[in-house]
Amino acid sequence: MEDRIIAYIDRHWRRVFWLLFAGAAIYMLAYKWNAIRWLSLSDTDDNIRFAQVQALLNGQSWYDLRQYKLDPPLGANIHWTRIVDLPIAAMILVVQPIAGSFVAQQVACAVAPMLAFGATLWALILAVRRLIAPTAYPLAFAMLMSAQAALFMWMPTRIDHHGWQLAMLMLAVAGLADPQQRRGGVTVAVATAISTGIGLELLPSMAMAGAAIVLRWIWDRDEAQRLATYAIALGGSTAIAFAGFASYDNRQMVCDALSPVYLGPILIASALLYVVAMLRIESRAARLLLALAAAGIVAAAFAGFSPQCLGRPEHISPELDRLWFRNIREVKPLYTKPWADALSIAALPVVGVIGAAVACWRARGTALGAPWATITLLAAFSTVLMLWQSRYGPQAQLLGVPGATMLAWLALRFTLDHPNAIIRMGGSTLAFLACSGLLVEYGVGYLPKTPVPKSRKAVETANRRCPTLPALHMLSKIPPATMLTLVDLSPRLIAMTGHRAIAGPYHRNAAAILDVHHAFRSLDPEVAHDVMVRHAATMLLLCPGMSETTLYAAQNPKGFYEQLIHGQVPAWLQPVELPANAPFKLWRRVG
């Protein structure tokens, strides 16, 4: 019986993929059903993505990514592309004539993230079958389902771009492990182009994957086909990503998106790599020198034509960094989180790095040595990046899955064949929990926790209540207006109502963000009045207690936000009556 199951898993792995994907999808839908029902897009990026799709379906130009409901009439310059908008918009267009607009939006927001999960799972199965064993992929699936930070990126209503970028990262890993050189080179190149077309967050990791292909060619001349196809596919697919999806704004020399700044060096690199791959050079030293020369030319071209991009890509001012950027939760280092949360996130990546290093050592001298060495470097790099910004947690967990699967595979081969039943059952369970990081996650759950202060509970209540559809419906009864409101509330406001806002949490919206911060922090109410006049805002909306407000209250206890909360309202603001259970405070500018 056991042999038949193993044979089925090996022979019918595509069928098993669909079963695993269906099971995960059912779990995700059940877990997030309430959020789907209420179209609860909890993240600011998800709400802006929804607003961008709405604008596209309402006739906004394909290449115009400005969000005109922010900072009207100019609009907020959003640095994204339409790649991730496509599946969401397509599903809305298909379902809307059948079930209506709201149901179509629910379906699209529920299904689109799970499509990215399906792509990730498919790539993971390919990678694990190539790297570990043809029947090891169900174990990898279990590891992936244990990666909570990564799994959250594919949950229904998580329609932002991170899930698709993670899918492309795993697809690149599968390409690196592919024994067929041409297919492997094309896979890594296309995954790199799509990921870069979506955003630059994973560009360093994708560059490392490309560098690994170059190093394999340096070591082994017979890897020339992989390098040549990678070079051709990288140049072609990146050019397509730019021509088909780069917005009008991203066609300028900007540093934070796929623009001519990056397209030029990538095309140069592609041409040079193809040329060197075609040369019959037998000496490793000569191949290394050629690769270094090519890298030097690309680096010189980048630095020479785009010196403004050698620093931070966001190009934000020190003031904006101090008042806003460094306070964003996901850009803070992992160690700034509660220690229990940090340990839970870091456990799987650390195990994954150890497992990948073990696999690399075991595979030395074989065809799998190079792929495992690359995975070890990628996993270690992402794990270290969490100490810089915690938003690399999902990436680190995903890259930890192959190594953790290898460790568990080795451990389970011992425990499952042991004659002692206790070791077979208990040892196997313990091995999986330890390798998946769940042992740490469950362990910290039993340790004493710091009591949540009442002030934090009030913040969580405000964060939960104000973005809900019933609360926003109260505002929808008011004729559309431009509102001075919290930066983090603006995306949800414009996505779910007809209202407009001054600023959203996007670095290209820097001047408007500073205007909002200055308005709510200043001791002088006239600063807020000036901001509203300049932006033609006729209403001021607050969600008292929301996370952003704690910054204003802590950094300037006598500032304009605190004045309003304590009833010190200037004569130029007139209260607007809302239902008694409304979580908002709303005023109309009358002067």
How far the N terminus sits from the C terminus, by CA atoms, comes to 81 Å
What portion of residues is helical?
A: 55-70%
Please state the CA-atom Rg, rounded to the nearest Å. 26 Å
Number of helices: 27
Sketch the major β-sheet. 5 strands, mixed
For the biggest β-sheet, the strand order reads: 2-1-3-5-4
Unreliable spans are: none
Question: Count the strands?
Answer: 5
Note the beta-strand portion.
under 5%
Shape: globular
Give the oligomeric state: single chain
Mean of residue pLDDT values: 95
The computed structural class is mainly alpha
Q: Would you kindly provide a written description of the structure presented here, covering whatever features stand out?
A:
This protein is mainly alpha-helical and 591 residues long. Among the domains are: 133 residues, no CATH class; 126 residues, 3-Layer(aba) Sandwich (Rossmann fold). It contains 27 helices and five strands. The chain has a five-stranded mixed beta sheet with strand order 2-1-3-5-4, sandwiched between helices.
